Amino acid sequence: MPDLRLSVGGREYAGWKTVRVTRGIECVAGSFELVVSDRWAGQDPPTPWPIAEEDECALTIDGVPVITGYVDRRSLSYGPEEHTLSVGGRDRTGSLVDCSAVLTEWEFQGISLLTLAQRLAKPFGVKVTLQAGLTLPRLSTKLTVDPGDSAFDALERGCRMAGVLPVSDGAGGLLLTRAGSRRATTALVEGANILAASGEFDGAGRFRKYIVRGQRPGTSEDFGLGATSVTGTASDQNVRRSERVLIVRAEQSITPELARKRAEWEATIRAGRADAVSVTVQGWTQGDGSLWPVNALVPIESPYLGVKGEMLITQAVHSLDDRSGTKTDLSLKRPDAFVPAPVVPVTGAWKVLAKGVPVGQ
Question: Model's pTM, two decimal places?
C-alpha cells in the first residue's frame, strides 16, 4: 500500500483509515480528505492531534509531494468505543479561487500571460512557472479585471486567450502548461487492469457546420461588405445530419482568417468535449510504481465502450477505504477538448490527433 503522510507544523501524520485525494486539470487546486478512527474500551477520550484550520500542510505519497497548501476544515467526534478525526485541505493555489484579485491596475494588454499570472498570484505566495519549452505570445486583446473578481477568474480568461492550462504543480505553485504535456506509462485495457468503466457520448452540442460572423474596421482600400460582413466556416464531418448548423457572432472585431480559425475551434472543442470516459483501476500507481498522472495521454482499449486510442487523463482520484482498499478513478477526455486544432477528425471518433500524430492506429 502506498505510504501517505500529512505533514503539519513539523509533524507527520499517517495511519489514515479513509483517504480521498483529488488532482485534476479542470480545477486549479488539488484537494484531500483524510479520516482516522481508533477504537478503545473503557478509556478516556484521547488527546486530539494538534491540527487546525489554516495550518500549512504538505501531503506526500511515497515521499512525492502531491498537495502543498493549507488545512481547510476538520471534524472531530468520539463515543464510548471510538474517536474519529477528519481533515480536509487544498493546494495553496486554492486561494486564487477563494479570494479577490489584489492589483494596482485593472486593464492589461501587450504583456505576457506569465507576467499577468505572477501579478495575480504574488499576494498569495504562489509561485508561477511556465512549462519547459513553452513560449507564449503577449496578450493582444485587452483583458479587464473588475474589482471583486477572483484572482482565478482573471487568470482563467488570460489562459483561454493564450490557449494554456493553469494547474497546480503539487508543491504549492502554479504551472502554465498545455494539455497532454506527458504520457502515462501503463495502458488501460478492458479485461486486464480496468476494474470498471463508463462512457458518456453526447452529440447534442455538436453541429455539421459552424459559421462565425462578425465585422472589422474598414479602410480606404477595404470597405463595404468586406469589412462589415466577415464570415468564416468549418465543418464536423462526424455529424451526419446536414441541417445541424450553428452561427456564432464574434464578440469583437475579426478578420476572415480569424473567423475561420474561430469556426474550426468551435468544431474541434465541441467534438472533443462531447465524449467522456471514467475508468477505475486497483491501486494508486502505474506498472512502474509511479502515481497515476494527470494531464497525461494514456492508451485505452475498451471494446464494450467502443474506445480504442489515446485519451487525456483530466482527473485522478486516489481513495482508500475498508471496502475497496486502494483504487484510482480516472476521468478521461479527448485531447482536442483542451487543445484547439485546425482540423476536426473525420476518420472515427477515437482517431484523434495527439501532437500531430494519429493515434489508435
Answer: 0.83
